[in-house]
Design a protein that fits this description.
The protein is globular and about 50 Å long. By secondary structure, it is of the alpha+beta class. Helix 1 packs across helix 2 and helix 3 packs antiparallel against helix 4. Strand 8 and strand 9 form a beta hairpin. The protein has a single domain, classed as Ribokinase (UDP-N-acetylmuramoyl-L-alanine:D-glutamate ligase), CATH 3.40.1190.20. It is about 30% helix and about 25% strand.
């Protein structure tokens, strides 16, 4: 009921898993995440949400953007033609996670560590691509049937100071850097 009314949502791994379980989506039999959520599984579920509930020509829905955030990485998923500046937006959300959790104005490399997978596949239900992270270009992009995915690792705070409201801060920061295209 909510998806047709909103343009964008932000959610974490628990919310994503609950959503696919409650609506019998892909990987719905997964009871819980074992460690860092598998990027291919997350990608499959995000793709399903936008394909089944997002804005399409034959569907009255405004949902065109999802910012997924977990401790180790973020993925920004958009229906093509509705949003711009996704690389900067997903990077801004990841930066906000590190700075807010560590209570610093900028990323202090002595206070953070990398927990993201350095290699991953983009799907477990479609023909996957295997992606290797490049530290010089930390935002990677792939495309699937009119939907774009932007992935970036998060520099995780070793000793978190502020975590209350972190998900909201991540989503808001990413949205601040996003460009919406008028339709």
């Amino acid at each position: 009921q909510v998806f047709p009314l909103v343009n964008s949502i932000g959610l974490n791994e628990q919310e994503l898993l609950f959503l696919t379980q409650s609506a019998s989506g892909p990987h719905a039999s997964l009871a819980s995440w074992s460690g860092i959520p598998d990027v291919g599984v997350v990608s499959d579920i995000l793709f399903w949400i936008l394909k089944e509930h997002g804005k399409m020509a034959e569907r009255a829905s405004d949902l065109t953007r999802i910012h997924f955030h977990t401790l180790a990485y973020h993925i920004l998923v958009t229906v093509d033609g509705h949003w711009g500046n996704q690389a900067a937006a997903v990077a801004a959300g990841a930066r906000a996670a590190g700075t807010q959790a560590c209570a610093t104005d900028t990323i202090d490399t002595s206070k953070v560590f990398l927990k993201a997978p350095l290699e991953f596949v983009t799907s477990h239900t479609e023909a996957p691509s295997k992606i290797s992270l490049n530290p010089d270009e930390p935002v990677v992009h792939w495309h699937r049937e009119g939907i774009s995915f932007h992935f970036t690792p998060v520099l995780v705070c070793k000793d978190p100071v502020r975590t209350v409201g972190l998900g909201d801060a991540i989503s808001a920061e990413g949205l601040l850097y996003s460009e919406v295209y008028p339709q």
